[in-house]
User: Fold this.
Amino acid sequence: MAYLEIRNLTKKFGDFTAVHDVTLDVERGEMIALLGGSGCGKTTILRMIAGFTAPFSGSIAIDGKSMAGIPAHKRNVGIFFQNYALFPHMTVFDNVAFSLKLQKLPREQISAKVNGMLELVRLTGMEKRFPRELSGGQQQRVALARALVMEPALLLLDEPLSNLDAKLRVEMQVEIKRIQRELGVTTIIVTHDHEEAVSLADRVVVMNAGHIMQIGTPDGVFDYPENPYVADFMGFTNLFDGTVAAVDGETVTVTDTNGNQFRAHDRFHTGFAAGDAVQLAIRPDNILPADGPGENVVTGTIQNVTYKGVVSRIDVEGVLKDALLHINIHNYDSGKAGARMDAKLPADKLLIYKN
Ligand SMILES: Nc1ncnc2c1ncn2[C@@H]1O[C@H](COP(=O)(O)OP(=O)(O)OP(=O)(O)O)[C@@H](O)[C@H]1O
Ligand SMILES: [Mg+2]
Assistant:
């Protein structure tokens, strides 16, 4: 039995369905990332799990116990709200200590726990400040400390790192992961950021418009998205139409709308037939520079090279019908705008979906 069992969960606001028939099991000690665009229902799912809003239909069970009718404060759930919701009239220390005080823990124990947690989120020395005297990222870390200090059995984090700079964000990712492992706390973390999701979570749930689009391991979802929506969300910015020309076992030959021929592997065992309308998808990082013609090699004209630090992004025109082909290459210095370029879209990296 999973620690958290969500069954056919639906939430409506008037006529609008914000969460649509969501079913998800979260194992004890597991960390799940909920990933999806703005408005897809992530916060609403957390609010139902925490008990702040009731489902329209479906069920939630924690540790085998139905949560129907159980009020929020009896669920032993630690929550980090998207808007932090710090108490403005309380100091940093008191914000973090709040629920420990409600539990009537001895003073020294509260002090030790709060100080330990503040050290963890790197806010030592700021105990006496009020929220208005903190930056957004500092407020965010106070809220994180407040959610963690209770050592809850279930932790719900709604975009806990969204306001931090890149360096602190990575440090806090490592910390959250470490705390989560150490405490063995079952965790759902919401994020917009697919790289954050795959680096933190044991499994990733990708949502769109209230629906679950895919549940999988980080590498599964990142490398092999099962549908064009997830592919697009996971950074497969090259997504284009074609028609199946031939099928040989699991090898599918596709002609795209610009007349290029590609081989692709039917990785998801979809089962294609000649004449099927399909979509092909490939991540810019998986396209390789080529020397002359070959399987899955296309030729175009470099329109633009953008230096992005670790990689350079090359936009190639004349390959796809109405779009640029995006390629990311490390240490790219050999091509300039206007030059011809051969590029290989390796068959094992080219994903194919039925339209
Ligand atoms: N109390 C409410 N009344 C009416 N509609 C609501 C209410 N709460 C949320 N919604 C709508 O439900 C949908 C899902 O909202 P939700 O806050 O769960 O999205 P989200 O995935 O958390 O988005 P974001 O990434 O922007 O935080 C949105 O379209 C939102 O406008
Ligand atoms: Mg939200």
Summary: The pocket of adenosine-5'-triphosphate (ligand 1) is lined by residues 13, 18, 36, 38-44, 82 (CB under 6 Å).
